[in-house]
Every structure is written in structure tokens, then in C-alpha cells.
Specification:
The protein is of the alpha+beta class and 91 residues long. The protein has a single domain (4-25, 33-90), classed as Folate-binding superfamily (Folate-binding fold, 2-Layer Sandwich). 20% of the residues lie in helices and 36% in strands. The protein contains two helices and six strands. The protein has helices at 34-42, 82-90; strands at 4-7, 11-14, 19-23, 50-56, 64-70, 76-81. Strands 3-4-5-6 form a four-stranded antiparallel β-sheet. A hairpin with a 5-residue loop joins β5 (64-70) and β6. It is globular. The N and C termini lie far apart (33 Å). The mean pLDDT is 90.
Length: 91
């Protein structure tokens, strides 16, 4: 995996300062059928390529970040504050 992550708040930091907390997966609507919720919670495809994950800068600014990276080459394409990403999605 890439050894450096460019935190939007702290600058370039070693990856050991971060905790990976999981992939960014679209959540079903609250009224979705049980089958959709079952797939969301228990059955996920592990597709190869560019993915978004939630990372926590636990040894730095303690902010939640969305890291877009390749799960094949581990190349990091972008790092965005999770709050900014949520505001962008709400538009």
C-alpha cells in the first residue's frame, strides 16, 4: 500500500497514522426489502480496481476521510474530508 497519505488537514503523513474503516457502499433505503438489506450487510462483491474507503486519521487530526484508491496497486487517487464528501452528495 502507498506509504504516504495526503491528509487535507495535516498534509502528507505516513499511512500508519490512519485506520481503514471500510468501503464506501451505497446503503439501501430504510423501506428497502429485506433481501436488499441482507446483500448490503452480508454479501458484497470484492471488485478489483478503484474504490472509496473510509479512513480515520487516528494519530493526527482525528478526522474521517474518504480515500479513493486502487485495491490492486494501492495507488491513492484522492483524499477528501468525509464531511465535505457528505455535503457534496447532499446537493
Amino acid at each position: 500500500m502507498a506509504s504516504l497519505i495526503n491528509c487535507p488537514h495535516c498534509g502528507v503523513r505516513p499511512k500508519e497514522e490512519f485506520s481503514i474503516r471500510g468501503a464506501s457502499v451505497a446503503r439501501p433505503a430504510a423501506t428497502a426489502p429485506d433481501e436488499d438489506w441482507n446483500r448490503y450487510v452480508f454479501i458484497r462483491d470484492n471488485e478489483r480496481g478503484r474504490i472509496e474507503e473510509y479512513w480515520h486519521h487516528s494519530a493526527g487530526c482525528r478526522r474521517w476521510l474518504v480515500v479513493e484508491r486502487s485495491n490492486v496497486t494501492h495507488e491513492v487517487f484522492s483524499v477528501t474530508d468525509a464531511e465535505d464528501k457528505a455535503k457534496e452528495a447532499a446537493r
